[in-house]
Design brief:
The protein is an alpha+beta fold. 19% of the residues lie in helices and 18% in strands. The protein starts with a helix and ends in a 6-residue tail after the last strand.
Length: 357
């Protein structure tokens, strides 16, 4: 009888604990799954203006250490859980050969290696470091080059090209190159899955082991966005709340920050300019014009142009800021530009957190 009573008490305590402690994610006003957006790596030393990335440092904290050397030629990312090739080849390679290399690898006795999609590869970036190749090589990796690395994600609008990610200075440049180009293009492979990284949205496959074939990452909820009826939308994947109909006025980075900091949209006073990782969650790798997809998903007035992030990235002594481009058939996914320019640059604002707390 005593054992039965104890079992009932333990069951009740467990039920109360799990009910009172909701899963991470969804700090932005509804929705969300057990999913986090990492901090970019910027800190107070990187701040140049109120409300920028270094000032607010939004996102989930990185574990310490961030990476673990497994002693078998692999490194595990303790945030995402992905396992990476520790010492990738320093030989340049075409996209097709990179896929073949990944698919055939049996590194450390595993046979499920693959070329990372673009969302997976950008998680290796640290916006607090000037030279990410040097930083990664000091985190347990070796042979990381100051150059472009292939992703498994094909560029929609030009399927003869694939997305590449620049592992170099602090700009997170997601561009695209012709798949047959094997000059200055490298490959690093990964394995495992991570629900802390969203799917890219690409579903069509162009080669075995590519992004559309494997569709790695956290599944998108349906609907992806909820209209809150007050001029805001909630992303049901991240929990972030977004401005539904962003101002179409072209803005400098400074005016974009002021616009965000001063907003009282829907009576909230904690609006801000999104950092790079937050803004990148609005990308869709199956859409040649992301603005069209967003405007069909509950937003309005999103333009096919550049949108500022709050992430400030000095490069070789010159002031730059990461911007997100609403990708169309002629532009890259992300890039950098002078913060004082306003031509074709606009702002969309966000509130809430997706930090797993």
């Amino acid at each position: 009888m005593k054992k039965y009573v104890i079992m009932i008490l333990l069951t009740t305590i467990f039920a109360l604990f799990t009910t009172s402690c909701p899963p991470p994610g969804g700090g932005g006003g509804g929705g969300g799954i057990d999913w986090s957006i990492p901090k970019t790596g910027q800190d107070a030393d990187d701040t140049t203006a109120t409300g920028d990335d270094g000032d607010l440092q939004m996102g989930a904290d990185w574990p310490v250490p961030r990476f673990t050397n497994n002693g078998d030629g692999t490194v595990t990312d303790n945030f995402t859980g992905l396992m990476w090739e520790q010492s990738p080849s320093t030989d340049t390679i075409s996209w097709a050969d990179a896929l073949t290399y990944a698919n055939a690898s049996e590194l450390a006795g595993y046979d499920d290696w693959r070329l990372p999609n673009r969302n997976e590869l950008i998680t290796l970036h640290n916006f607090g470091e000037y030279h990410n190749d040097i930083w990664l090589n000091g985190q347990g990796f070796s042979n990381i080059q100051f150059s472009y690395y292939w992703t498994s994600t094909t560029r929609i609008g030009d399927t003869a090209s694939a997305n590449v990610f620049y592992v170099g200075v602090r700009n997170a440049d997601i561009g695209s190159h012709t798949k047959t180009d094997d000059a200055s293009r490298y490959a690093i492979i990964c394995r495992g899955s991570s629900d802390y990284i969203m799917k890219t949205g690409q579903t069509e496959s162009y080669a075995a082991g590519d992004d559309g074939d494997l569709e790695m990452g956290a599944a998108w909820p349906d609907p992806r966005f909820t209209d809150n009826g007050d001029g805001t939308l909630t992303d049901n994947l991240t929990g972030l709340m977004w401005e539904q109909s962003p101002d179409t006025t072209q803005k400098t980075w400074s005016s974009a920050l002021t616009y965000a900091n001063d907003s009282l949209l829907a009576t909230y006073d904690d609006w801000r300019l999104p950092n790079f990782y937050e803004l990148a969650t609005l990308m869709h790798a199956a859409q040649a014009t992301v603005s069209t997809w967003l405007n069909a998903s509950g937003f309005s007035n999103v333009q096919s142009c550049g949108y500022w992030s709050s992430t400030y990235t000095p490069i070789i002594g010159t002031d730059y800021v990461i911007c997100f481009l609403t990708m169309n058939s002629t532009t890259v996914a992300t890039g950098v530009t002078d913060p004082t320019q306003s031509v074709n640059m606009r702002a969309i604002i966000v509130r809430g957190t997706a930090d797993g707390e």
